[in-house]
Design goal:
The chain is mostly helical. The chain is built from 10 helices and 4 strands; from the N terminus they run ααββββαααααααα. The protein has one domain. It has a two-stranded antiparallel ribbon with strand order 1-4. Strands 2-3 form a two-stranded antiparallel ribbon. Strand 2 and strand 3 form a beta hairpin. It is globular and about 80 Å long. It starts with 9 loop residues before the first helix and ends in a 5-residue tail after the last helix.
């Protein structure tokens, strides 16, 4: 079928599904499949035939990971050699990690013991040369959060880069797919319970969730215990849906604004009206793209912040 018979469908620009890239059709004059590679030999999984393939979002996720490595490996080498990051470029990327550590990880994961020390120390923790006395519980592990900071850094940067790749024409954001955000939420779910089980042990962790309500209210306690566990599933589900909905909706709006150019051109011809709509659409996309830059950064922060919050709730559940 000729490319000109296909009406542009913005959802094919935003999603990683079988279909066509209509804007590529206008360039190549023929349909362009969204699968970059698809095996002709299926794999049977529980009676369902699955064809291994490489899609646009898979490639974009690899690009996101590669960009992170490209930026942070040289930065890590400089810091390992004792060099301080200099210049706006390196200070920007280092400052981003410092913010996640100081404003996201430590406030949510350090726990009550560190908070009590902060309040009792009247700011001594920030005095140069201040150290904990021998035997103090915080002497060797002043910040419990620091062991989890690399995970939160990786999560934040990966979500951020996936979000921002959608700002480039014809690429799209992998986080506009519920499958991608669902996989990220599954990782958060595992960490949410994994850090607590590693600290307390599986049996003790589950026992800590049991409400202390007395023998007479065992049925009520059991119901609350189950709802508490099920609530962690809901939290992870909300993480996935929030990120997906924000990224999907934003890029769908941008795609539909551009489709107006095609609609007007086919309906009224490529005259004065088409020129006016084209200018208005392009200016609108530019303005909304600036908003999308902020949304991409904000959603990466929210996803990481809530993951750290839920991890801290499990890690310090029952601590006093």
């Amino acid at each position: 079928m000729a490319a000109e018979h296909h009406a542009p469908n913005p959802i094919h620009e935003v999603q990683d599904q079988e279909g066509f890239w209509p804007f590529f059709e206008s360039l190549f004059k023929e349909p362009v499949g969204i699968s970059l590679f698809k095996s002709e030999t299926p794999i049977s999984i529980f009676g369902y035939e699955w064809y291994p393939k490489i899609t646009k979002f898979m490639l974009l996720e690899l690009i996101a990971a590669g960009l992170i490595l490209l930026i942070y490996i040289p930065l890590a080498r400089r810091m390992r050699n004792g060099e301080l990051p200099t210049g706006k470029w390196w200070n920007f990327w280092e400052g981003m990690l410092t913010f996640i550590r100081d404003e996201v990880a430590r406030p949510n994961l350090d726990g009550p013991a560190h908070d009590e020390h902060e309040l009792g120390g009247a700011g001594q923790d920030h005095m140069p040369g201040h150290h904990e006395p021998p035997g103090h519980p915080l002497e060797h592990e002043k910040h419990v959060a620091d062991k989890f900071v690399p995970f939160l850094w990786t999560l934040f940067l990966f979500v951020l880069f996936c979000n921002l790749l959608g700002m480039f024409p014809m690429m799209g954001s992998p986080t506009a797919s519920i499958w991608v955000t669902g996989a990220l939420a599954l990782v958060s779910f595992v960490m949410m319970h994994g850090v607590a089980i590693a600290k307390h042990g599986g049996v003790k962790y589950l026992a800590n969730l049991w409400p202390k309500m007395g023998p007479a209210l065992i049925p009520v306690s059991a119901m609350i215990w189950f709802l508490d566990l099920f609530g962690t599933v809901i939290k992870s589900f909300v993480l996935a849906v929030r990120l997906f909905a924000n990224m999907f909706a934003g890029h769908m709006v941008l795609a539909y604004i551009l489709v107006f150019i095609w609609i007007v051109g086919n309906a009224f011809g490529f005259g004065l009206m088409w020129g006016g709509v084209t200018v208005a659409s392009v200016l609108g996309v530019v303005a909304l793209s600036l908003l999308e830059l902020f949304v991409g950064l904000l959603q990466a922060y929210i996803f990481t912040f809530l993951t750290a919050l839920f991890m801290g709730m499990g890690l310090h559940h029952g601590d006093h």
